[in-house]
Amino acid sequence: RCNGGYVVAPGSVVEGKLYEIARNLPLAPVPASLLERIEAHRKARRIEHDTEGRMVIEARRRNETLFQIACALRRFGVDTPALLESLRVVNNKHCHPALADFELQTIAVSAARYRPAGEQTRRTNP
């Protein structure tokens, strides 16, 4: 809901009629403007490579990308010291320019606040 609008979902009553899910109908065409936005987003997230074919993490994407990598490892139960060491390897090999070590420590600690997959609570307190 935004700008004074409202949400209509199955189970809602609109003008005295029950709102239900329509089944077995063809999908509506996707508006061209939405496809353009999706394509622009896809291009913006494209991974760059150097002349030798190695992945390059550009300056504007370093923190976000390294945090995503750390969170992916954390889901498998990787602890903070191992997260930090993994981030150092990726940072030194793929980030241009590389982040300072204190930034990697911050990323590792932030990612370690999340519990590994399968545990009850999604995030722990700092």
Provide a short characterization of the protein structure.
This protein is mostly helical and 126 residues long. The chain has a domain at 49-112.
List keywords for this structure.
single chain, 126 residues, mainly alpha, three-stranded mixed beta sheet, two-stranded antiparallel ribbon, elongated
Please provide a written account of the structure:
Strands 3-4-5 form a three-stranded mixed β-sheet. A two-stranded antiparallel sheet has the order 1-2. It has four helices and five strands, in the order E-E-H-E-E-H-H-E-H. The protein is mainly alpha-helical and 126 residues long. It starts with 12 loop residues before the first strand and ends in a 14-residue tail after the last helix. The protein has helices at 32-44, 62-75, 80-94, 101-112, and strands spanning 13-14, 17-18, 48-49, 55-58, 95-96. The chain is elongated, with a radius of gyration of 22 Å. It has a domain at 49-112. Residues 51-117 form the Primase C-terminal domain.
Layout of helices and strands, plus pairs?
Elements: E1 13-14, E2 17-18, H1 32-44, E3 48-49, E4 55-58, H2 62-75, H3 80-94, E5 95-96, H4 101-112
Parallel strand pairs: 4-5
Antiparallel strand pairs: 1-2, 3-4
Helix pairs in contact: 2-3, 2-4, 3-4
